Amino acid sequence: MGSPKPFNDFIDEDAMKLHPLLSLSIVGLGLAATPALARPEIASGDLRLDVGSQGCLDRADSFITELGVQSDSGEIDRTGYFNDGAFRILCYQQSEDQSMAIVFASHDESAEVATSFVQFVMGKLAQPDEGSPDSSPAESSL
């Protein structure tokens, strides 16, 4: 038996010319995809309010207006956008005069920022609207 052929004997000359181009393409694709692999840090919390779901949404609207950020609104939610993150406030009817606010916040880099922002939002939602009689939070939890 003869000795095994070297690996190079199996590779076509034209394929070898494409090798550097293929390698550069793979490296370039890998570098371009790296930002897509970064995942945002997410935090959440909930708060029971002594107002109906519409009162909860009104408080969310006031909060977003106060922030002055770009936002979207849905039937049961409000969403706000920052350059480095976003937040969503969901309002669910619990009883005739109570609702549950669920807050989600995401930040591009920091879970601490997202968590602090959720706490800030819940504090703002817990404050009764001016002119609204006795609408304090019933109970809060994280």
Record keyword descriptors for this entry.
single chain; 142 residues; alpha+beta; TATA-Binding Protein; 2 domains; 6-stranded antiparallel β-sheet; 3 helices; elongated; disordered C terminus
Helical content (DSSP H or I, runs of 4+): 25-40%
Q: Report the CATH topology name of the largest domain.
A: TATA-Binding Protein
Instruction: Give the number of helices.
Output: 3
Major sheet attributes: 6 strands, antiparallel
Q: What average pLDDT do the residues reach?
A: 81
Query: What would you give as the CATH superfamily of the largest domain?
Result: Alpha-D-phosphohexomutase, C-terminal domain
The structure class reads alpha+beta
| Assembly category | single chain
> What is the correct CATH architecture of the largest domain?
2-Layer Sandwich
Biggest sheet, strands in spatial order?
2-3-4-5-1-6
Uncertain segments: 133-142
**How large is the radius of gyration?**
27 Å
- Gross morphology is elongated
What is the C-level CATH assignment of the largest domain?
Answer: Alpha Beta
